[in-house]
């Protein structure tokens, strides 16, 4: 690699936390044009329509000829496998509705602002995945007792942080053997679309999206901790470029609302007609349940409970609703959730260097008018 | 509308055409996060997978209960209609593969840069639409002989340029009676997803996307030219804020290539291994045919013909390929197409105030290395 590439994270802003960075860089725009957040109107649906689901692609979407493609299972196994898509589809079928979120969701709302994929708040979606249990295939390959982790390699390749790499992530053997970890070939009742990992991807429910490796090509049993780029350099809760920090893993509790009223095209300012307004949205909490959702209509001074829908699938978001008597003028709405483990969304932003796991309570500025 | 909103187009840059604006505004980022370009890997497919198709939503994606929804056909007709989705689906069925492009595609590559939805080059996609002929329904409603235009109103509502509006566009009666203008309820063999206009949208093949009104609610025959915001203020080839300019209509000839080699995550710089490289992509030309595609591998000094695939559906993009002997070093690739009417893509940018119809030849910077 003779050519230098830009550093992975640039920091913009004065660090005071008081002012928002006003300007963005061309690289951020290029990333924002390729990757896509879910428009928050998508919070209306139990299952996000495929084309509305968030999407992050680190490198390029690879072209895969499924007829020639084989999933190779190797490393510390006594029976290495090379399995065709057809054979995987013949195995016992599991369906799972999973809310997936990018670990960087909310990054571009942080101040100072880490410059990378500039997510605002839409890097989330819920899909019904169809696949087969990872565990059953690992059992078939007969793992060595010395296995510590399972390493997943995708077909997408490129440079990040000046390292040439295939996208690779590992999970512990305990996590890999979790009954709900899937090798998925279907999304919302149809074959995976290319951008979502065709022909086969991993689904690790409850984890941020980086764990659910797309375009799977290779699965290896290893007897040590995998220290690749996407494990040790990226996806860390760190405070500086030199801080190794802690690994990012499970999705943190979060709630978002369907944008109330109507927008201004350019600024996305929200206009709402005075009167009773039904606020609604979704909340999710990774491997925990959503315990409570609260709404503030006065900028965070007072909070009241939203009504929660009945519990749905374990890893899926849960609907909430709240009736608001909207009076003319400007208002700041907030929503925050708490999970069954007692974790709450912060109202003040807890900053980190890579802009990971920012589950700060959503703020929505509203202009209420008597007549629209 | 008591509240002021920001101007629709802001101009950034010095106008010299020599330097690219380096910074972007938060509004652009918010728009880029909601709307989405097709990652150019999508140029591999005859028909773009639904979730990869470009998407522009002016206001919000409306929620529509299809059971209650009716398409109303009125204005200067002797038999006004209110038609259910079920009834529309019973009418004679037409399928049409259409390449659609946003009129603002390439806007963020202009200098000085019009600030609006900041498209780079991905605001394009090809879908198979299923629907019924608009003409047959208009015939059923019996148009008055004084009809000049047909006006289409969508259910999406918001503010643009300080005007509160439903999204509305008209076409001439001649255009509305074109046999390939569809009322579409299907995309790629499935019901429209909400973001693409569920339950029903217009498809005007060969026109930029703004003509293909989504979430159709009302069709009216009128005896004059409709002068609404999206006709007279937006979608104009203008040279300044005060210049009314000319209306944007048919898609201009354009060609794009699948990104060669592999990317750097952050900068999207392209790295290619030395040797023979198959460059490939698509070209399209609205209502004309693609006549010729040329590639330059030396920054536009010399050009050679690419091979064109055999002709496909009338309104669909056409594949091209070109073999390149890539030598180590930095290279600038360009591709340009010419249509059957003799129009070519410019190599130098022809600027306009709203950033419309920018079909300047694509430039791709490549770093070729001996080994990757």
How many structural domains can be distinguished in the coordinates of chain A? 2
What are the secondary-structure elements of chain A, in order, as H or E? Answer: EHEEHEEEHEEHEEEEHEEEEEEEEEEEE
Segments of chain A where pLDDT lies below 50 for 5+ residues? Answer: 1-7, 14-21
* Intertermini distance of chain A: 58 Å
Biggest interface goes to: A-B, 68 and 68 residues
Q: Provide the spatial order of strands within the biggest beta sheet of chain A.
A: 16-17-24-23-19-20
Would you give the CATH topology of the largest domain in chain A?
Sulfite Oxidase, Chain A, domain 2
* Total number of strands of chain A: 24
So, CATH architecture of the largest domain in chain A?
Alpha-Beta Complex
Description:
The structure is a homodimer of 372-residue chains. With 372 residues, the first copy, chain A, is mostly beta strands. Helices cover 8% and strands 36% of the residues of chain A. The interface between A and B is large, with 68 and 68 residues.
Which terms summarize this structure?
homodimer, 372 residues, mainly beta, Sulfite Oxidase, Chain A, domain 2, Immunoglobulin-like, 2 domains, 5-stranded mixed beta sheet, globular, disordered N terminus
Short description:
The structure is a homodimer of 372-residue chains. Chain A is mostly beta strands and 372 residues long. Chain A is built from five helices and 24 strands.
